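User: Second chain of the day. Same drill as before.
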Amino acid sequence: MDSEDSALEQAYLQMRPQLLRYAAGRMGTASDSEDLVQEAWLRVRRHAPAVLAAPLPYMMRVMRNLVIDHGRVRARRLRQAEVDALLEVPGDLPSPEDAAIARSQLRLFARALAGLPLRRREILIAARLRRVPYAQIAAQHGVSVRTVEYEVRLALDHCIAAMAAAEDGYRMENGEARG
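Assistant: Same format as last time:
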């Protein structure tokens, strides 16, 4: 070890308690403070000739920069509660019960749809399922847009009533109250 390294080490050992107090005041834990002071020493040693001119200000600047960097990293790091919240995101798949309910409603809708007159059924399917513009549907069926609107409303009213009646019948068969 040459005299430059020895002088730098002496300056570091003399300032180490002050560096530890500075880090502890900002970091909160002794282990984090020790780690930062050690990191500061490693950085200071890499720039030994520049440090010898003014070791205290240089070491304090390195220490301040490390504390700032550590604070930024800590702010970006997710806390345990945030990680837990992210892991509890529900899946995209419906539950078996929801899937069964959806299948049952789809069957009821298909039955209600089958009970419509042909033209009304075709207009409803074009308008609501295929998203065809009303003007285009009117042109295909040789009717006015107003007639298409009327047919869609009648078809929807029929399907809603038929599905409600089927659900009420199911509830009655199973002794459930309407809810």
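The chain has nine helices and no strands.

User: Great, on to the next one.
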